[in-house]
Amino acid sequence: MRLLLVEDDEQLGRGIRKALMRDGDHVDWLTDGAQALAAIRGENFEVIILDLQLPGKDGISVLQTIRREAINTPVLIMTARDTVDERVLGLDSGADDYVVKPVELKELRSRVRALSRRSHGFAAPEILLGELRINGANQQVWFRGVEVELNRREFVVLSEFANRPGQVLARRQLEEALYGWDEGVESNALEVHIHHLRKKLDSKLIKTVRGIGYKLDAEYAD
């Protein structure tokens, strides 16, 4: 999934980005609140990890603004402010979760996955769709009871479909989940990943919707 990290501490931001990307997520990292607000308005992110003490525009102002504009992307506040009043202000301003620095990276990853699952209507740690089973925490996939090895990008593509069963996903939407601002996208990269998924799982798993994009086969979308 594609995440936005808004953190002005260079060392902390670099460490969090590295840890999350090691899990297979793509992380766009900004250090300024005003830049973050512009990015949130113009891009699609699965989860936003937001510090409160930011240059340009503080985190609470960013959060309140996007909620007024009906941007419902899950937001996890990550801050050194640990008083009850600060936590209440953050949650009442529209945050979905709150962690206090220093935060264990293992816990942060778990909270991000939980926010993503809940935003798509899944409470359990595994997604079950027909004969397809996906564990986001361990990046494991089983098909018809057999574990299937996927590389990081294949897993990201499959997760995008699994999180939105029955929806047609545009090419741009899938590419945004795979590649961030600092990565170039080869013209046929997405088609290659989908070809590999069809080959490893089922040739009918992902349907092409001509002129629009792709969707999960109805057998797995119900």
Describe the structure.
This protein has 222 residues and is an alpha/beta fold. It folds into two domains: 2-119, Response regulator (Rossmann fold); 126-221, Orthogonal Bundle (Arc Repressor Mutant, subunit A). It has helices at 10-22, 33-42, 59-68, 84-92, 105-119, 152-163, 171-178, 189-200, 218-221, and strands at 2-6, 26-30, 47-50, 75-79, 97-100, 126-129, 132-135, 140-143, 146-148, 169-170, 206-209, 213-216. The strands form three sheets. A five-stranded parallel β-sheet has the order 2-1-3-4-5, sandwiched between helices. Strands 6-7-8-9 form a four-stranded antiparallel β-sheet. Helix 2 packs parallel to helix 3 (59-68) and helix 6 packs across helix 8. The radius of gyration is 18 Å and the shape is elongated. The model has no long low-confidence stretch (mean pLDDT 86).
Provide key terms for this protein.
222 residues, alpha/beta, Rossmann fold, 2 domains, five-stranded parallel β-sheet, 12 strands, 42% helix, elongated
